[in-house]
Amino acid sequence: MTATESIKIEKPPKGASIPAKKGIKKAILGIFKKALETESLDALIIPVKVPETESYAWVLLKDTALLENADPLPPVMTIQGGKVLSDLTKHGKINKNIAAVLRPCETRAAVELFKLKQLHFENISLISIDCPGAIPLSEYLAEPEKSEKSFGNVLDKWDGDDSVREICKTCYRFSLPTLTNAPASDLHIGLSGNTKDDVVLIPVTSKGEKILEKLDLKPESSLQKWETKIKEIKKIKSQRRKEFNHDFKTNISGPEKFTAVFDGCINCHNCQSVCPICYCQQCYFDSATTKLSSEDYFRRAKERGALRFPLDTMLFHLGRMSHMALSCVSCGACEDGLPHVHFRISGLQPRRRADPASIQLYPGNK
Amino acid sequence: MEKAYTPQIIGFLCNWCSYTGADLAGVSRLQIPSSIRVIRLMCSGRIDPLFVTKAIFKGSDGVMMMGCHPGDCHYQKGNYYTRRRYKTIKTVLEVLHLDAERIVLSWVSASEGVKYARVTKEFSNKITGLGPNPLKKEIFL
């Protein structure tokens, strides 16, 4: 099955509709509040707006008062949620029953990190949410108020808005389900396709069903409207991604073009530190192995005729590409982490998870 | 008189199968191209994609990855990792139009000295046909 195939939801034919007369955000937070008060959940990990500033931080909370400033769908992605969950559970499972509220790309990152043994899912319920995209971090930090406003517009329109990040404009995995039939999250919050008056909670796994049960919510509303809208947006975004991939391939093919694309790189390695999947404790490129003696530099310079400093800037990107190609979740964190904006790297992962079918070939049997 | 072009090929060979296979080829006095420089690893699963890309970036004309046949890995599943990585590196290089055909993966067992001689010869001929790696003189790469 390919990523662009139509939606297949085996489990949830129906969802629980929640009235959202005071706004979507308030309705969702109301559910979380109830879940914490009734002790259906021991704690919640969710982005919270830092008081007195304009930034968002991930907070593990139990105190419902803190939910006042929480935002299940913040306009920016400051830290990738998958990375946060990995920090929390890397050294073993947790004994509390908690839920994490994540964007779909963050959920995918959590799943990838689980595969890489960097995360434990025991006792954690993943709650994903339909995501219209995120505002570029640099733009948000420069003009937070304007960005909050334009994010509101994005939420209204759902597609075609220019203010979200480039990668989000071409993201066709912004909702349920993800790549395969395997559910990435336990409970999904459906936003698109509904009027502003309600939000739909879709149980995806038995864990999600249990949460709804404990909250006395019955999945009885039809998902047809939501599904139709999702399919519609998915079609537009898939087409956009196709066009982008085509343009991108043309712009990067060949050594000269490849060098030109990376010419803006200042070797800060931010893309590496913010990437949720790049989890090695010590990277080869940060190690002392990459620092040579002056004789070695001269020898290399002699071989090529000249030598560019710092060494291996391009190799770093190629190395990251070949390390990440199978796990990249298209979250765009690498691009958001760049110190300047004229340098596109989030499109670089060649296949965004290579087609598993192609891996089944037996290339060595010649 | 101009010297004939001989490519420089790096071969990453696993200790248990391919390296022993290469040894057998030598002991059997089979002709092996002098263009291949062998690096012995304990398992083909040790081949980081970076080894291959670095070799290509630094100017090797070709890279051969060799390991035990699927199912025969001394460490059970090392060569399955290799297979996945090979596919990934190939895809990355293909997308970037960076001569993906300069990389090859081959399963050579300890008893396949003849196969070792054949695949190295074939690959060496292919690389000779392709000519020197254009990245060798690329300063800004």
Written overview of the protein:
The complex is a heterodimer of chains A (366) and B (141). In chain A, strand 2 and strand 3 (56-61) form a beta hairpin. Chain A is built from 14 helices and eight strands. Chain A has an eight-stranded mixed sheet with strand order 3-2-4-5-6-7-1-8, with helices on both faces. Chain A has helices spanning 24-37, 81-89, 104-115, 137-142, 144-157, 166-169, 206-214, 224-252, 255-262, 270-274, 294-304, 313-324, 333-336, 356-359; strands at 14-19, 43-49, 56-61, 98-102, 124-129, 187-190, 198-203, 221-222. By secondary structure, chain B is of the alpha/beta class. Chain B has a single domain (9-137), classed as Rossmann fold. A four-stranded parallel sheet of chain B has the order 2-1-3-4, sandwiched between helices. In chain B, helix 1 (18-27) packs across helix 4 (113-130). Classes of the chains: A alpha/beta (366), B alpha/beta (141). Chains A and B meet through helix 9 and helix 12 of A and helix 2, helix 3 and strand 4 of B.
